[in-house]
Amino acid sequence: MSWENNVRKVVPYVAGEQPQNKNVIKLNTNECPYPPAPGVEAVLHHFDYDVLRKYPDPDVSALRNILAKRYQVEPEQVFVGVGSDDVLAMSFLTFFNSDKPVLFPDITYSFYDVWADLYRIPYECQPLDENFEIKKEDYLKENGGLVIANPNAPTGIAVPVSMIEEIIQANQDVVVIVDEAYVDFGGESCIPLVEKYENLLVVQTFSKSRSMAGMRIGFAIGSKKLIRFLNDAKFSFNSYTMNVTAITAGVASVEDEAYFQDTVAKVVATREWTKKELARLGFTFPDSKTNFVFAAHKSIPGQEIFEMLREKNIFVRHWNKPRIENYIRISIGTDEEMKQMISVLEQYIKERN
Ligand code: PMP
Predict the structure, then answer these.
(1) Between the CA of residue 180 and those of 64, 159, 311, what are the distances in Å?
(2) How far is the CA of 181 from the centre of ligand 1 (A)?
(3) Could you read off the pLDDT of 241-292 as tens digits, one per residue?
(4) In terms of DSSP bridges, do strands 292-297 and 327-331 run parallel, antiparallel, or are they unpaired?
(5) Residues 283-342: pLDDT tens digits?
(6) Based on CB atoms within 10 Å of each CB, which residue in 66, 109, 122, 176 is the most buried?
(7) What ligand 1 atom has the least distance to the C-alpha of 217?
């Protein structure tokens, strides 16, 4: 008998590369190419270091209050965590304690199965159809909970809230998590449905549309009861997840709605330009409502394009997984970055043929 028999063994999630070399065009982890709201810089610039002596507010009230106002819910309906990864991990722990399998698509955010394995939650992946669309019927069978990313990643496809509502309606005896990490770029949010369904948890993040991936802020909105359960688990784990810098900077970000809208509009405009250019070069892709495009070329394998771009210091994401090995996921950068990427692709395709 070895001590190793008692180790919880896990196969960890593999995050996208974070190259330390600044000389790259980084389009591989869906960050926003624009800085956070100017108010965030002001807060950090004038930060009163003395507050670091004390523990932060364990209830994260300042941020919960302003998010509640922004999303027209009560502060008791908001939970905040260290990025939506933390919120999702805590939600899996709290809500998925059934012997029946939790259901999510076969092609989706690849952290879901990692958390399920970590917590020993049974799960079953439901295959997306040939167009990478969700088949509603797959989520109408018996289950221990549901996780749906809408828009989905890495496909970029958004489904209408009416379809999610039909799924929730048929699943009121389990918790349904809707991961809306990318919703601000053109999806429709399920937040209005939390009034109607006590078992619905909607999760969002500051990492994409609010340009604050490095600050690690995510949040969930749901019924007061659901949020109470989530807080009970959090306070049994670590009371002080959110540091005071993140709380203050997060508030400053939400205060500037105009900057937020403007940033999102810029990313969306660049995405639409990128789609046209990719189509011109012979790529096909599902219609993205996110800050990335999931594209496959009609004749060049995904792996080859991924490696070629990397050689040229352009980082995109590629998975060596069945059904998607021919695709690359390209995050939307600035206009200039996308122009450079398109020109590198164009040149390569021309010379290869
Ligand atoms: N959900 C989805 C679908 C994502 O793609 C990501 C980004 N990797 C996350 C959640 C987590 O993002 P964060 O922890 O930065 O909020």
Answers:
(1) 18, 11, 33
(2) 6
(3) 999 999 999 999 999 999 999 999 999 999 999 999 999 999 999 999 999 9
(4) antiparallel
(5) 999 999 999 999 999 999 999 999 999 999 999 999 999 999 999 999 999 999 999 999
(6) 176
(7) 16
- In short, whether 149's Cβ falls inside 6 Å of ligand 1 is yes
Residue 156 Cβ inside 6 Å of ligand 1? The answer reads no
Residue 76 CA, ligand 1 centroid: distance in Å: 23
Q: Which of 220, 183, 219 is nearest to 200 (CA)?
A: 220
Q: What region, left, alpha or beta, does residue 222 occupy, with left being phi > 0 and alpha being psi -120 to 50 degrees?
A: beta
Centre of ligand 1 from the C-alpha of residue 31, in Å: 10
Residue of 183, 230, 235 lying closest to 79 (CA atoms):
230
Give the Å distance between the CA of 91 and the centre of ligand 1.
Answer: 14
| Measured CA distances, 304 to 108, 229, 345 (Å) | 23, 47, 11
Determine the distance separating the centroid of ligand 1 and the alpha carbon of 203, expressed in angstroms. Answer: 10
Residue 255 phi/psi, 5-degree rounding, is -65, -25
Distance of alpha carbon 283 from its chain centroid, rounded?
Answer: 24
- The residue whose CA has the least distance to atom 6 of ligand 1 is 181
Q: For 203-212, what is the mean pLDDT?
A: 98
Number of the ligand 1 atom closest to the C-alpha atom of 153: 3
